[in-house]
Write a structure and sequence with these properties.
By secondary structure, this protein is an alpha+beta fold. It folds into five domains: 57 residues, no CATH class; 212 residues, no CATH class; 70 residues, no CATH class; 131 residues, no CATH class; 68 residues, no CATH class. The protein contains 21 helices and 16 strands. The strands form five sheets. Strands 4-10-6-5-9 form a five-stranded mixed sheet. A three-stranded antiparallel sheet has the order 1-2-3. Strands 11-12-13 form a three-stranded parallel sheet. Strand 12, helix 20 and strand 13 form a beta-alpha-beta unit. Helix 5 runs parallel beside helix 20. The radius of gyration is 28 Å and the shape is globular. About 7% of the residues have low confidence.
Length: 602
């Protein structure tokens, strides 16, 4: 068994190499000149701990580095869980402020708000608020990774101070003590300008003219051609100007972890530690949620907790939940759980254990109530089962893709890998597509280095890996999903995974990052039913017809008539006749199958 770790010792630098991470050019570099010049005790202590014999090859138990890896993954997972709650709350905050402003405009214009042709649809408002927080999530992630070269957060002082989300993040805890500060529009104007820059792009030529020909502070942004950043995708919210206190609350929610439990303090969320897969889990967590307006005061209820489950809860767990502000007894108070709402006239029909309670500022229990006209964004009833929005954990996607590719790549050359096509018929936020792109890119670089008998320099490997990911994502990746929002999120996930930037030539304007385009590759549709050009005869649709259409094989037809004859060829090639119906316009027995486990429970 070869050694797990190798230390390469030089006069000024040491390298710590992990055998499992070396193929991806990942290592720890210790620059002793820099470290000793700084004379920072903590830096030297960290270096000593990482290089110590007991940390790398302990006599028993796991090594320190393995523990650090595991803890980093757990921390990132915990942060992604916090973000799910933060995004749900942010959507409600944005939605309720939008409702307030749109209602005031409707009253002033003597128009209907809940009814009539000008009525605001709660579903449309939910979708637009969802897009808005996903824009924020995209920007948080991309600004935390300057090495991808998309936003010039470290290269342009103009961008960093004048446009970036990070500049607003620095104001997340600034007190807004006056009405002008609370209700001002500085946050809103800055964010809308930033959204426009991302969606439409920005060339360095325009920046040069402003700076009198100097390219020192110029920056360029490649446009992201996506519905996510398209202003026409948010017509309702385009009529709203969110005040500073709303945006500050949203940014605070997405910037600070909740700090649950005894030993955890709230801290700043590090988006640099989150993987694409963990962001995908945050994306998909909200796909099955929906927003609605409370028609009257609504009380939240939940199924009463099972006694067996309650009895297994330890005293320590109960004490911790009390410290976190979770009331004891009653239904679940988890805002990410399925929710049921009843009017005040029916709340007394429910047992005390079925009524959901909150704690007020004095620690007293009170019923959770939503006043009339409140915008509520929750997982209602069986929405998750009906939408089938479940996220596949990264460990499972990695395993499945690894063994699917193991046989496929057995005899392939590096160039053969670049010709493979990847199709995902239910892509969600593209977890499997991204994993396939990652593993194919790594396999390509590994084999290409072997074929050329030349290794890529360590500092260049990340750029080459991103180039390969971009090539594969741009040319070889296809996907379908039933949920249109999932299609938008898949685009964003693939972008974040494949974007890369190249350094500008000396004295030249900066280059915009390379961005893949998925206009003809990712679509919304039903891949189980499909849109094959197959038809049934209309006579089969009659009630007494034997056999029924679903017991008869459909006929494949041509899309266009034959140019020579003006009509399709005979047999399967013939175009659809007037008395034939496309298969995807007809129901199927499986659509009303009462043998289904979920259907039997209703």
């Amino acid at each position: 068994q070869p050694p797990r770790y190798v230390i390469l010792v030089g006069f000024r630098e040491w390298l710590l190499v992990d055998r499992y991470k070396w193929p991806n050019n990942r290592l720890l570099r210790f620059d002793w000149s820099e470290s000793l010049d700084r004379k920072e005790t903590y830096t030297l202590q960290a270096a000593a701990a990482l290089l110590h014999h007991d940390s790398l090859a302990p006599d028993q138990g796991a090594s320190l580095l393995d523990g650090l890896d595991e803890n980093a993954h757990k921390h990132a997972f915990g942060v992604s869980e916090d973000l799910k709650y933060a995004l749900r709350e942010a959507i409600e905050a944005l939605g309720n402020e939008a409702v307030r402003q749109l209602r005031e405009k409707a009253i002033a214009g003597k128009q209907g708000f809940y009814t009539g042709k000008d009525a605001v649809d709660a579903g449309d408002l939910s979708l637009e608020c969802l897009r808005l927080v996903y824009r924020m999530l995209f920007l948080f992630y991309i600004e935390a990774r300057p090495e991808l070269g998309y936003v010039p957060i470290q290269k342009s002082e103009i961008y960093a101070r004048g446009y970036s989300l990070e500049s607003l993040r620095d104001l997340e805890l600034t007190p807004l003590n006056t009405a002008a500060a609370r209700d001002g529009l500085f946050f809103d104007a800055t964010l809308r300008r930033l959204f426009s820059l991302i969606g439409q792009g920005c060339g360095a030529v325009a920046q040069q003219s402003v700076l009198a020909g100097s390219v020192k502070e110029a920056f360029a942004l490649a446009p992201l051609d996506s519905k996510l950043f398209d202003p026409e995708a948010t017509p309702l919210l385009n009529q709203v100007r969110f005040p500073n206190h709303i945006w500050q609350r949203v940014i605070r929610l997405m910037s600070l972890s909740s700090g649950k439990g005894k030993s955890h303090k709230s801290g700043r969320v590090s988006y640099q530690l989150l993987s694409i897969n963990q962001l995908g889990a945050v994306y998909e967590a909200l796909l099955s949620y929906r927003g609605f307006f409370a028609p009257e005061d609504l009380y939240e209820v939940q199924p009463e907790p099972k006694k067996a489950a309650a009895s297994t809860r330890s005293d320590e767990d109960e004490e911790e939940s009390e410290q976190e502000g979770e009331p004891q007894g009653g239904g679940s108070t988890d805002l990410m759980d399925s929710a049921w709402f009843v009017p005040a006239s029916r709340i007394n029909q429910y047992k005390p254990g079925e009524r959901v309670h909150d704690l007020d500022e004095h620690g007293h229990r009170k019923l959770r109530v939503y006043p009339r006209d409140t915008f509520i964004y929750r997982l209602a009833g069986r929405d998750r089962q009906k939408s089938a929005s479940y996220y596949t954990p990264q460990v499972l996607t990695r395993c499945l893709v690894k063994y699917a590719l193991k046989e496929l790549l057995k005899d392939k050359t590096a160039d053969d890998i670049l010709t493979l096509t990847v199709v995902e018929p239910a892509m969600g936020s593209a977890a499997f597509l991204n994993e396939a792109v990652n593993q194919l890119a790594e396999a390509y670089l590994e084999r290409k280095q072997i074929e050329l008998k030349r290794r890529i320099p360590h500092e260049q490997y990340i750029i080459e890996l991103q180039k390969t990911r971009m090539y594969l994502a741009d040319r070889n990746v296809y996907g379908v999903d039933l949920n249109p929002i999932a299609t938008e999120l898949a685009e964003v996930s693939l972008w974040l995974n494949a974007i890369y930037g190249e350094p500008a030539d000396p004295g030249q304007p900066p280059r915009a990052a390379r961005v893949p385009w998925f206009g003809y590759q990712l679509f919304s549709g039903n891949s189980l039913i499909g849109a094959r050009r197959e038809v049934f005869a209309a006579s089969l649709l009659k009630k007494a017809s034997k056999p029924a259409w679903y017991d008869t094989p459909p006929r494949r037809c041509a899309f266009l008539p034959s140019p020579a004859s003006g009509r399709g060829a005979g047999g399967e090639g013939e175009v659809r006749r007037p008395d034939e119906v496309y298969h995807f316009l007809l129901p199927d027995p499986g659509m009303a199958s009462y043998t289904d486990k979920v259907a039997r429970q209703l």
